[in-house]
Amino acid sequence: MEINEKALIEKAKEGDQSALSNLIHEHSTNVYNTGLKILQNKAEAEDVLQETFLIMIKKIQSFEGKSSLSTWLYRVATNVALGKIRENKKLGNTLELDALDYEPLKGSQIKSWPTDLEKRWKDESIKACLERSLAELPTHFRLVFILRDLEGYSVESAAKSLGISKSNVKVRLMRARLFIRDKLATNLHCVEAVS
Amino acid sequence: MSKTHHKDSDRIIKLVHEYLGENSDKTILDEVADHMNGCPDCYIYINSVKQTIQLMKKVNQVKELPSEVEFRLYKSLKIKR
Ligand SMILES: [Zn+2]
Fold it and tell me: Is the residue at A152 inside a domain?
């Protein structure tokens, strides 16, 4: 943690509003983005933003600085966002969760894969395809993908956060990756026609 | 099954899914690299999955906080910006 931020936290604990304001300003973009990634919805991400900082204001007195404020806020924001999904019952029941009914492509079915793809992420059609495929994934599959591959959670902490087993995380992650990859492959016309 | 399908392919693919994004040890990385060199199917499979994740990261990279969202945040917290 920067010395500057430590000082701001101390001032905020003493009730200094402008210190609090500065802390919020410093971290608001990250908190908003955490909500946005998990919920894929701007209005809900805004709720996460407001609730996370409400919690921060309430708890700043007891903030000991064992982790950095950004790590702490990230954890709070993630929990708030996952809580929203549970609230909305978007997680559904276990049976529903396993319903990703499709057969992934095999390596042999992909005839070529563009070498310059990483530079093309701004292409509207690629962007739209990726966003659509993420949105089409059943919630639990999407969350596993977001937590593991976008947010860098370990299998264990993803399992803990979602309340599912580690082997479930692994299975869902693999299927989610392939689902998105296959949508992309089809979009890029990389799929070999089945003869 | 294509003629290049190795009996080892399924195991390698499972290994890759497990270790992608984790700190994998060198022996595993070497084993995967070795296999990929001799197996075009796995090469394209693994490469395409890796690139899909990279692209998704880029598409989801940090988006600016809209000023009206920031305005409403401070208002809801009753704090002056
Ligand atoms: Zn292989």
Answer: yes
